[in-house]
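Work Package 4 report. The design task specified in the project plan requires that, given a folded chain encoded as C-alpha cells, an amino acid be chosen for each position. We show below one input record used in the internal validation round.
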C-alpha cells in the first residue's frame, strides 16, 4: 500500500474502469464508483475484500455513506456479500463482496462473474 494525496492506495490498483453495464443502469455516480472499484479489486472470481473504511478513503466518503451505498447495491442485486465467521469468538472475521452481472439487454439475471475456463484443449 502507498499513500496518494493522503489516501491509502493498493499498488495494484491502476485506475477505475466503469463497465458499460454500470453506466446504463439507474445508478448514482457514487454507486458506479463503488461498484466499479469492487469489480476492479475482485481477483479472478475470488471477490473483493476491501473494507468500508478503505473504500470510503478512496472516494472521500464517510464510512456510513459507503456502508449505505454497499447495502443499497446488495438490496438492488448488484453485489452480494459473503461473511466469514469465527464461531468460537462469534464475530465476523471478513467480508467478501462479489459483483453480480447482468446482460446489458436486461434479459438475463445477474450472476457471479466466474473466471473463464479454456475448453479448447490448448
Amino acid at each position: 500500500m502507498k499513500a496518494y494525496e493522503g489516501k491509502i492506495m493498493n499498488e495494484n490498483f491502476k485506475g477505475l474502469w466503469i463497465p458499460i453495464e454500470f453506466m446504463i443502469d439507474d445508478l448514482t455516480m457514487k454507486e458506479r464508483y463503488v461498484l466499479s472499484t469492487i469489480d476492479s479489486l475482485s481477483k479472478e472470481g475470488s471477490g473483493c475484500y476491501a473494507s468500508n473504511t478503505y473504500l470510503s478513503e478512496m472516494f472521500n466518503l464517510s464510512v456510513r455513506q459507503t456502508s449505505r451505498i454497499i447495502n443499497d447495491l446488495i438490496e438492488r442485486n448488484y453485489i452480494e456479500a459473503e461473511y466469514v465467521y469465527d464461531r468460537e469468538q462469534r464475530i465476523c472475521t471478513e467480508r467478501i463482496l462479489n459483483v453480480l452481472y447482468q446482460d446489458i439487454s436486461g434479459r438475463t439475471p445477474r450472476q457471479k462473474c466466474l473466471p473463464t475456463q479454456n475448453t479448447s484443449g490448448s
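Confidence is low (pLDDT under 50) at residues 113-122. Validation will be extended to a larger panel in the next phase.
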